[in-house]
C-alpha cells in the first residue's frame, strides 16, 4: 500500500517559490489501478516523481507498506525502486540494444547471470505478446510495440507498483486501448498496484477503479471512478468528465429554469425519461446539452434541460426525475428564487 501524507513540493524560481503540490493526502491500496488526472500544470508529474523519490518532498511523507521513503538511505531507495517501477510516454528504450537486452538490463545491472536474465526476459516478452521481437531493435517497432517492451522491462524486477506516467499519450486510440488492456491483464494476473498519471479521462474510465483529480497542486476530488463520474462535485472534475458541460456561452440568450440530469447507470441512461415526463406530467422539456460515456458495463452522462413554465412546473419535473433509479438531479437555475427577488 502507498500512502501520501500531507505531501507538499515547493520549487524556488526567479519569481519566488512555486507550490507544485499542496498537502496531498492519498492512499493507493494493494491491487488498485489508481488514476491521477489533471490538466497541464496540475502537478501530476511532480507527484509521480515524489512517489519514487526522484523528487524529495518539501513536506510530508511517502509510505510504502508503512515505511517512509524519505527516511531511507541510498541503498534502501535503490531496493525500493526495484519494487516501484515506471513506464513513460517516450518509452525510454536504448536504441542500440535489442528488445531482449533492453528488458534484461535491470536484471544484469542487479548481477543476475546472463542465461538466467535472458530466460526471464523471454518470459516477459511472451507476457507482453512480443516473443518474436527479442532480437529486433526499438527503431524497428511501432510505438505500441515499444511500449510493450518498456512494460516488460518494468516488470523484470518483480515490482509491487507500476507507475504509468502519461504512458499512452503518444499512441493512437486503438493502440492505447490495447496497451491499457495489457496493463489491466498484468494487474489481474500479478496483483501489481498500478498508478496511472494522465490528462485523459478516457484512460481513467477504461481501467481505473479509483481516481484523484489534481488542480493547481491540490486534490479537489477523490473516490471510486463510478462515483466521481456519476456525481462530479468539483468544477475541475466536471470539466474533465464532461468537457462540453460548460454550457454558459451557449446559453447566454436563454433565461429559463434549467435542470441537469446525471445518469448513474446504463438502464437509467436508456430510459425515455423526457417522453415519459411529457406524457405523465405534461412538461415538454427542451434539451440544451448532453453527453454520455461508458465505464465498464455502465453508461454515465448528463443532460441539461430547460423546463418551461414557472416554479410549480420546475418542482414537478424535479420530483418526477428524482423518482427514477440511477438518476441525480441538479437545479442549475433557481427560478423560484429569481421570481421572489423580482
Protein architecture, described:
The chain is α/β, with parallel strands linked by helices and 342 residues long. Helices cover 37% and strands 29% of the residues. It contains 13 helices and 14 strands. It has helices at residues 44-51, 74-83, 99-109, 114-127, 143-155, 173-190, 201-207, 225-230, 235-241, 266-270, 273-281, 311-322, 335-341, and strands at residues 2-13, 16-28, 33-37, 59-64, 67-68, 84-88, 161-165, 193-198, 210-215, 218-224, 257-263, 286-295, 298-307, 327-331. The strands form three sheets. It has a six-stranded mixed beta sheet with strand order 6-7-8-3-9-10, with helices on both faces. Strands 2-1-4-5 form a four-stranded antiparallel beta sheet, with helices on one face. A hairpin with a 2-residue loop joins strand 9 (210-215) and strand 10 (218-224). Helix 3 (99-109) crosses helix 4 and helix 3 (99-109) packs parallel to helix 5 (143-155). The longest helix is centred in the middle third of the chain and has 18 residues, at 173-190. The chain is elongated. Mean pLDDT is 85; it is low at 246-253 and 333-342.
Features:
342 residues; alpha/beta; 6-stranded mixed beta sheet; 4-stranded antiparallel beta sheet; elongated
The largest pleated sheet is described as: 6 strands, mixed
Please give the alpha-carbon distance between the first and last residues.
56 Å
Give the overall silhouette.
elongated
**Strand-residue fraction?**
25-35%
| Overall helicity | 25-40%
Tell me how many strands there are.
14
| Strand order, sheet with most strands | 6-7-8-3-9-10
Please, what is the oligomeric state? single chain
User: Radius of gyration in whole Å, from Cα?
Assistant: 24 Å
- Give me the strand/helix succession: EEEHEEHEHHHEHEHEEHHEHHEEHEH
